[in-house]
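Record type: ASSEMBLY
Status: queued
Input:
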Amino acid sequence: MRYSSWLVIVMVVFCLWSGLEYRHFHKQLLETRQHFNVRCRFQKAIGLPNLAITSAARYLRHYSITDLTTPFQDYPASPDHFPAGFAFVPPDYSNMPSPIVFGNPEK
Amino acid sequence: MISGSWFERQKNIIDYSLQSLLRRRSKNILILIIFILLVFAVSAILFITGSLTKEMMITSNDLPDITVQRILGGRQVNIPASFIPEIEKIPGVEAVETRVWGYFYLASLQANFTIYGMDLTLLEDGEYRKIVNWKNIPDQAENQSLSSRPDFRMIIGQGVFELLKDIQMEKAYLFYQPSWEKPIPFDIIGTFKTETELQSNDLMVLQTEGARRVLELPPDEFTDLVVYVPNPEEIENIALKIRRYFPALRTVTRAQIQNTYASVFGWKSAFVLSSLLVAILAFLILIWDKASGLSPDEKREIGILKAIGWDTDVVLSVKFWEGFILSGIASLAGILLAYAYIYWLRAPGLREIFIGWSTIYPSFQLIPDVDPKFLLLIVTISVVPYLAVTVFPAWKAAITDPDVIMRNIG
Amino acid sequence: MSNLIIETINVTKTYNPGKPNEAIAVKDASLQINEGSLVVLKGPSGSGKTTLLSLIGCQAKPTRGEVIIRGKRISKLPEKFMNRHKRNHIGFIFQHFQLIGGMSVLDNIVLPLIPEGISPKERSKRADRLLERFDLAHRRQFKVSYLSGGEQQRVAIARALINNAGILLADEPSAHLDSRLTSDLLVYINQLKQSGQTILITSHDPIIYQHPAVDQVFEMKDGQVIS
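Status: finished
Output:
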């Protein structure tokens, strides 16, 4: 088979793939539009701004309005939770024994 | 000699171009892979940033115009009711509403809930009724809960409901803090619809008085205030006035919330792109190698083609097709792969970087955000420069007399 | 009476004119070649034989003078028309064969037919005839870099003949061949002459220019045709 025929086959595959993705795109958009009304009404009723996805520590959910430093929490200057927890769950050290001995050491 | 059709001629030229690409297989495959990777990465980041921004923007127009908080010692504290009439006096302010909300951390499930207090009867009527899946509460239980405990009802998000189901508390939940005498039970009268999952997944909306009890808010204090300003042009002015008249107060406008989101997604895009620095550098080196001139083999090949009677424009067509096919396939493949990765596979790996993690995670589908302008830009900035570095070095050899080329390369 | 097929009138070729490294490769060269004849241009290295052959073969344009092929003044033609004339009338065999190493024997031979829009089937048919004629059929799909010197020479000849050109120009065809292979080459050249081809060869090899099939020998020295 000619090389140009292979190229045509590749182009046809790309077209089919694009078609599939376009169909998916269209379907998703229609679905989303149907949800818009419900979501807008919810937003009007509740009025808390942030989506239930958090890009930072688990204790900061509405980070755009929670704290004075909150809008800048993802910046390096904020020591609370950058960079440990910003993408994945930080390791849980809560059950580790403390290396520090409190109180008077036994003589 | 009988010539064939123009169409056959073009097919022959394309055949030759593909053959030529395959003759330098290793180098071209490497360029193709890196090219696809770069287009894929840029497109994927554009898609996910666009989708998340779109998600946020969809509902942000319904946010309050100005949120007012009280700051003490650099931290947010409860705001007393005495500020309300003072803010209402500012010209341009339509209304000031109070908000009671906060967090409740359930250590056993490592889950952080958002508690929001409001009058639940407002959700039972009119347009707001449709955002809740109301529970079928048995008559007896309903009579008991509504008549004796109207302040201790709540509507929860789907994620919360799933967690409470695991601990058999899907009908009522017991709030408890060690400092309380006894736990406070709340009846669950409904769950928010799955369409609102992205916003409500971890939310518990309690009757206001119940919320006050759980958040331990003193009677005349609120978490924050929201100010409604009918004229959008006045929002910034009024926010400024509030900050000037009341130095202890901080204002957050809707525009600031939107900008904060844009900046968060913006820096995350840059973070991911910068991790591709190695791939970008490798690609630039390969392109520089191409642009700095033809190899002796390539020059010789052009000389031979010219010597056996190929026109300059045919030689340049071959080079054009070589560059166009490689960069075109790379751009298309990169974009299509990026779409599939973000919207079909839901961006494993990249999602965590942009969205973070949470114990109560909504299983949401990103809204596809495909801006044709951006796609055209990606294709243009990937195909056009590559064509230039492929065709221009060949042009110099193609316009030289074959005799000169042959002599120089023997 | 034979027709005049190639004529050069006071052809001069200067490289890098006006620059410190200016070189006059051919100076006022005039010759006439009849159709169907076998002509040799002989002379020492640097005498301008290759340059004159390049000018006749449309590989370069003369600085002054005229080159006339089949009655057409090709030196004045725009590149596109000159190339068309070249494809239709001239086959060129280069000194170092100038084959594309990564391509097969078949692909090298059919190269001149690609811009003509000839289909792969037709190209294959024409090439196969030549492959049979030059005993290369068993090497059809081999990459030329794997071939011996003699086989590469035959591929170069086949490529020059693929477009059924009436004129064959060969630049030092025996330069990379031993005497046995040179004799074989002369057999092919003689066969081509018998079939009506006009052949112009540059060579300083006496085996070539003293061959009985040669009709005319021109001698060049310092860029000029002296006999």
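Annotation: The first helix of chain C runs from residue 49 to 56.
Annotation: Residues 155 and 196 of chain C are 20 Å apart (CA to CA).
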